[in-house]
Amino acid sequence: MTRPVNVAILGATGSIGQQALDVIDRNPSRLRLFGLTEGRRSARRTADHMIQGQAGDSDFDARVEAMVTDPRCDLVLVAIPGARALAPTLLALKAGKEVALATKEVLVMAGALVMKAAGERGLRPVDSEHSAIWQCLWGERSEHVRRLIITASGGPFWAHPDLDLDQVTVDQALNHPRWSMGPKVTIDSATLMNKGLEVIEAHHLFGIALDHISVSIHPQSVVHSVVEFIDGSMKAQIGRPDMRLPIAVALGYPERLPDAVPPAQLEELSGLEFHALDESRFPSVRLARQAAVAGQGRPAVLNAANEEAVNAFLVGAIPFSGIVQTVEAALNAYPGGGESLPEILEADRWAREFVKAGVRGAPSGRLKA
Ligand SMILES: NC(=O)c1ccc[n+]([C@@H]2O[C@H](COP(=O)([O-])OP(=O)(O)OC[C@H]3O[C@@H](n4cnc5c(N)ncnc54)[C@H](OP(=O)(O)O)[C@@H]3O)[C@@H](O)[C@H]2O)c1
């Protein structure tokens, strides 16, 4: 009999981490909690490796390295938001571990380096849209794929075109209509920057050109994404908006774990809507594409400026509409750099400094794009 897969969770107290613990609990013959990290909260669980603290602190980083490179560890689920997840992701991949990646920011800032470290093994996506695309691609040949269509709920403001985005409060922005998630990804969903990040994430994960990846607003969040093939056929993955399904797909691969979520009932799916994205109101996807096409560290600038701008919004230092304006200002000001790891980390540092200095210096909390 094969032993259960030893899973380490980075970010076990978060939204993804907690749902992953639930998936592991319900599949004891296949999955075992081997290690976990906690930030400020407690996961109230025991494991062989238990690490508490903040990524970037030397003790935390050293202990995470020991956990993700431990020969007994089979699979690492990366679910700490933001750029700080890059180092442990690269360590796990270089140690030959399977990696299930929730943290899209890692692929946005350093997609080429991360995919190179993953090699033939690849990565297991956890984002629901990328899990959908991954599942649609199983058994297909890459030359038969014409286009990826990433669906987007639209977030809390898409359906309210008359709303003044300057006046949106933090509570309103955190009130996602479909998904219950951590604050960073929830604000990204409201600005639609989440879709911009996901376009870059899909480009790296599946090796599809950026201009063959589109976004469609689908408020019901039941069709998680679509793959179009060269013969005109389209495959979509359908499921309730419940992250335990893509988590179970990633942890269980290549097996499917039984009863991860109740299936959607087709009779309940009448009235599914798909709409074009209004890029003049939500320019994030355009900005992300431009950054990815231009390269030279710009995706890392996009990502870091966005992280800092989201933090500034959450503490009331800039208005909601200032988030994307800040990202655009950073991209416009960035002189360009290289794409090695030190150069990407430098681009990340530059963007954070740029945004912090701008937020401190601009009385309106806005940087001029
Ligand atoms: N939630 C979703 O449904 C969803 C869907 C798709 C993709 N994602 C992606 O998955 C990632 C995680 O999202 P989430 O919603 O699960 O976030 P979350 O609920 O905010 O949880 C974040 C986790 O990371 C830990 N953490 C945060 N900052 C840390 C730091 N500096 N050092 C060490 N640990 C730290 C937190 O610890 P404490 O809370 O204990 O401090 C917590 O365990 C994000 O990149 C997001 O874009 C999430």
Keywords:
369 residues; alpha/beta; Rna Polymerase Sigma Factor, Chain: A; four-stranded mixed beta sheet; 13 helices; binds NADP nicotinamide-adenine-dinucleotide phosphate
Q: Explain this structure to me?
A:
- This protein is an alpha/beta fold.
- It has three domains: 5-126, Rossmann fold (3-Layer(aba) Sandwich), CATH 3.40.50; 127-242 and 264-291, no CATH class; 295-369, RNA polymerase sigma factor, region 2, helix turn helix motif (Rna Polymerase Sigma Factor, Chain: A, Orthogonal Bundle), CATH 1.10.1740.10.
- It contains 13 helices and ten strands.
- The strands form two sheets. Strands 3-2-1-4-5-6 form a six-stranded parallel beta sheet, with helices on both faces. The chain has a four-stranded mixed beta sheet with strand order 8-7-9-10, with helices on one face.
- Strand 4, helix 3 (86-94) and strand 5 (98-101) form a beta-alpha-beta unit.
- NADP nicotinamide-adenine-dinucleotide phosphate binds next to helix 1, strand 2, helix 4 and helix 7.
Which oligomeric form is depicted? single chain
Radius of gyration: 20 Å
**Percentage of residues in DSSP E strands:** 5-15%
Distance between the termini: 60 Å
The dominant shape is globular
The assigned structural class equals: alpha/beta
Bound molecules: NADP nicotinamide-adenine-dinucleotide phosphate
Helix content: 40-55%
H/I helix tally = 13
Largest sheet: 6 strands, parallel
Compose a concise summary of this entry.
The chain is an alpha/beta fold and 369 residues long.
